[in-house]
Amino acid sequence: MRKKKKTEIYALGQHISMSAHKARRVIDQIRGHSYEETLMILELMPYRACSSIFKLVYSAAANASYKMGSNETNLIISKAEVNEGTTVKKLRPRARGRSFPIKRPTCHITIGVTDISLEYEDGYDFIEKYRNKDYLTSSKKPRWKNMCTDMINTINKNVCSSGGVWDKK
Prior knowledge:
Layout: E1 8-16, H1 20-30, H2 35-44, H3 49-67, E2 75-93, E3 99-115, H4 116-119, H5 124-130, H6 134-137, H7 143-161
Antiparallel strand pairs: 1-3, 2-3
Helix pairs in contact: 2-3
């Protein structure tokens, strides 16, 4: 039995000094994108988490080119997850000899990249697996949109036929 070649390469950042919730809002934007798109997205986003995630994506791509010899144009962000780390607890002195607790959350970020050229011939199947675009191409209109236009049309018919709201008596 032949072992399947490992096609996913990881980069792990531990004890990054930020909340996991703040890092997740950036991670959700890059999951499933190509390596080059991810770098552009991270450069243009205004969040503090982007700089540390940018370093991890760059490190994952460097790991993939070193271990598998893959080209950076064929890389896709296949796995991106954020877990909560330990909370650093400190005490801040306050008035009358009291203390106030300071809790600084940390998080662990894992970025996994996959080379499309090793897995699939054209790469499009892999992209569709990780990035679902059904909601963009669906032709079904929302229910509330039809109700809203129907209400506006009935209001307009009533106003035009009754002589209007604008008549001053």
